[in-house]
Amino acid sequence: MGLPVRKSKVAPPPACPLSEVLSLLRGAWAPNVVWQLSGEARRFGELRHDMPKISARVLSARLRELESRGLVTRKLLRTSPPSAEYTLTPLGRELLPAIDALATVGRKLITEWEALPHRGR
């Protein structure tokens, strides 16, 4: 028999803020797409060039999802052939410091990993 589960004495918030923010960035490549849009508006082909490992299908899906979550806006350009330009919304911009913090930790982990003796061979 296991130990009985104790109930928390702290009332939970209506929604977990961390879960809410992470749900905005769910899906492979979503944080990368947000990061690539941090500088300026980008067209689909420019984003594909910036992220060569992402497939067109996945990039298209992520852009649609980020747009539906209110992080990205899509503006149709009057060009021939027609194209669209993607920009971050104010809500999308609010995520940039968090993504930058994750990238900083990631760079540190990569540096430490590469410094391990077994990695040099």
SSE arrangement:
Elements: H1 17-24, H2 30-36, E1 42-43, H3 44-50, H4 56-68, E2 72-77, E3 83-88, H5 90-94, H6 96-115
Antiparallel strand pairs: 1-3, 2-3
Structure, described:
The chain has 121 residues and is mainly α. 50% of the residues lie in helices and 12% in strands. It contains 6 helices and 3 strands, in the order H-H-E-H-H-E-E-H-H. The chain has helices at residues 17-24, 30-36, 44-50, 56-68, 90-94, 96-115, and strands at residues 42-43, 72-77, 83-88. A 3-stranded antiparallel beta sheet has the order 1-3-2. It is extended, with a radius of gyration of 19 Å. The relative contact order is 0.13. The model has no long low-confidence stretch (mean pLDDT 91).
Keyword list:
single chain; 121 residues; mainly alpha; three-stranded antiparallel β-sheet; extended
Main sheet record: 3 strands, antiparallel
Element order, helices and strands?
A: HHEHHEEHH
Number of strands: 3
Helical content, roughly?
A: 40-55%
Summarize this entry quickly.
With 121 residues, the protein is mainly alpha-helical.
